[in-house]
């Protein structure tokens, strides 16, 4: 599975990231794989830090923290901290559930058509726990890079004859298309259900934008805490320039100034309570030479919630929200591919998505609804791309087979195509896990 979390930012206007689903050839014994990679194109949430803590006050926008899930960290900044074990478990639970839903789509599509299935796994690599039921091995594996559904088509240890009509490889093209696309369909349906439950339980979030950039959180012992920034502050100006009205552009403009001025004084005008203050903040230098001050940033918006009066209105709200989030996902993915040279460094793995999800859960559990919905939509869209190791790649091979009058490509060629794609996804996932782990605040502080 592959997901682009950049849409989290857009939807506040907001990678986790994206879950990626990768699958090998469909008519072989190889499993349908799901791998995890995320693109953080949104730059909303950074860790920018401040020195004296005076005038401890409450945020004048107490609902601002509701939107922290729309804020994302950049490589070298704060991907979220893991101090709260419960929030980390909640984020990991969301991610695992999405993987299970995706793979369950493939599994059920095969099972309901009478197609033989041999394995259902969450994760890759060595088996940590497993059990068998109805000739299917269910397992949890060591590397949290996704999951897979395995078929016994070319398994030398299988007792099923190679010409069995219920092997996936022997099924008509339409049957195989249904199995491969079922994971995407499952994630789309799950995203809609999540939004519907959110609408019924907590209401539809409605935002009102205000000038400036909100500071939901300030890290202890950071540049921001040393120089006087407090949680709840609203940054209105930077070096004498007014920040635009709340939105990604305001956050990006502030971030850009901070990054470009390590160890240099940056003059901020800050709204606190009913008064405005001006003081300088000197960003610390990051390991990559950019500046950081150690705060989270998010658009300065007030969020209210509208509950539906009846089921008809609930479905209406759900449809609008689902379409809005889907449009944001598509737009952010488009921007990622159009500016890939700039956005490639913002691709992140499961460690980063869990860190971001933990921040969401720690801020407000309600945010997990849209967090989960956007991850599902991301996963669905990216897995339709015609790339090796993704659902779309497997569908592309089937379309080629159909165009050739039902003649499959040589088995060895398909194996090379899909195996190379799977290998690249696994290597990328492992690289991102290491990189994202090194980018975690508490890890960087120990280095």
Count of individual beta strands: 15
The oligomeric state is: single chain
Structural class: alpha+beta
Overall pLDDT score: 77
Radius of gyration: 23 Å
| Beta-strand residue fraction | 15-25%
Number of helices: 12
Shape by Cα distribution: elongated
Give the ordered list of helices and strands: EHEEEHEEHEHEEHEEEEEHHEHHHHH
Helix content, binned percent? 40-55%
Described by strand count, sense and barrel closure, the largest sheet is: 6 strands, antiparallel
Spans of at least 5 consecutive residues whose pLDDT stays below 50 are 5-31, 38-83
Number of self-contained structural domains: 2
* First-to-last CA distance: 32 Å
Cofactor: Zn(2+)
GO cellular component, one term: membrane
GO molecular function, one term: metalloendopeptidase activity
Pfam families: Peptidase_M50
Structure description:
By secondary structure, the protein is α+β, with helices and mostly antiparallel strands. The protein has helices at residues 7-12, 85-112, 173-201, 223-227, 248-260, 311-338, 340-343, 350-363, 367-382, 391-403, 411-439, 441-446, and strands at residues 2-4, 18-19, 32-35, 38-39, 119-133, 136-150, 204-218, 234-238, 241-242, 266-272, 275-281, 284-285, 291-292, 295-306, 347-348.
What features would you highlight for this structure?
Pdz3 Domain; 2 domains; 15 strands; alpha+beta; 447 residues
Topology:
Layout: E1 2-4, H1 7-12, E2 18-19, E3 32-35, E4 38-39, H2 85-112, E5 119-133, E6 136-150, H3 173-201, E7 204-218, H4 223-227, E8 234-238, E9 241-242, H5 248-260, E10 266-272, E11 275-281, E12 284-285, E13 291-292, E14 295-306, H6 311-338, H7 340-343, E15 347-348, H8 350-363, H9 367-382, H10 391-403, H11 411-439, H12 441-446
Parallel strand pairs: 1-4
Antiparallel strand pairs: 1-2, 3-6, 4-15, 5-6, 7-8, 7-14, 8-9, 8-10, 10-11, 12-13
Helix pairs in contact: 2-3, 2-8, 2-9, 3-6, 3-9, 3-10, 6-9
